[in-house]
């Protein structure tokens, strides 16, 4: 049975603010002292995922005690790094290579045991492939309903999340005893790894039987900034016409300003760019300081992934392209002429 009461505030697309305040008016209260949140921190090859730090910020926004959770092989250094995050009281660490790949089949029972032991009121994880895969199982095992992809916290029971590709904002109130929440990384600033001195303790390891085998992964590697967290992103669309042109036009532009490269789904589907570069409803959600859309029409599914960018610049030969409706700066013209010209100017500036 669903235990979530929904109050859905539908707003016309134009009325939705481009940026939303994450920190609502949470004043200190007696109730907040009873709250305790477990922030599940992702690690890959011994490095804390940057997005995990946003989960800690969200946990701190709730008030109450904040504990972090890490698991994998040689977890000590990751746990020690996480312990330096300001405002975290305790890091629970489970040292076991079986959790290296974050497989939900054994990671879910692992979390269940640690949540039961800690008696947490909230469990928060980034809305990443890992979070989306693991947390629903944990929530189901503990008879709760997950609240996904939140962008703001109103109070300990009430959360804000975009729906319909960001065209409506839903305010969700949960009466579940434990709230299982995934957060949109771009809506919560990453907590600083600074002068914190959280205690590091061993978590419970149920060593659940694993009937799934990790076979392999094929990760796209790039020396450019990570698309999800870059401060500047330049994205190319179908207007680039081919992979050769995409590489010839977009990569020098990206390098001239130290930007990450993104792409529209049409560009990805046409083979101009790797799937991992897709921005949008079914790709990555980004909110950099600068987002430059080149030869991208501005379909609603693309806007869902970038409209919270601080400054949006667009280059398109069609003055009526919808991208200009969200752009702060627009240039109408042929990208094959304008972008190389711009790149040269940026390189020499
Ligand atoms: C369920 C679903 C999910 C989707 N998810 C995503 C998603 O995550 N991300 C996403 O991007 N899309 C997504 N889409 C697809 C989306 O609807 C659009 O089809 C797609 O975004 C279009 O990509 P585009 O703007 O590159 O191509 P087009 O719409 O074809 O636009 C190309 C643009 O390039 C311009 N142009 C062409 N030549 C030049 C030139 N020489 N100089 C300057 N400008 C030029 C044109 O004027 C045009 O505006 C999704 C669709 C569905 C149904």
TrEMBL record:
SMART domains: ETF. Belongs to the ETF alpha-subunit/FixB family. The electron transfer flavoprotein serves as a specific electron acceptor for several dehydrogenases, including five acyl-CoA dehydrogenases, glutaryl-CoA and sarcosine dehydrogenase. It transfers the electrons to the main mitochondrial respiratory chain via ETF-ubiquinone oxidoreductase (ETF dehydrogenase). Residues 37-218 form the Electron transfer flavoprotein alpha/beta-subunit N-terminal domain. It comes from Apiospora phragmitis. It is found in: Mitochondrion matrix. Its cofactor is FAD. Binds 1 FAD per dimer. Keywords: Electron transport, FAD, Flavoprotein, Mitochondrion, Transport. This is Probable electron transfer flavoprotein subunit alpha.
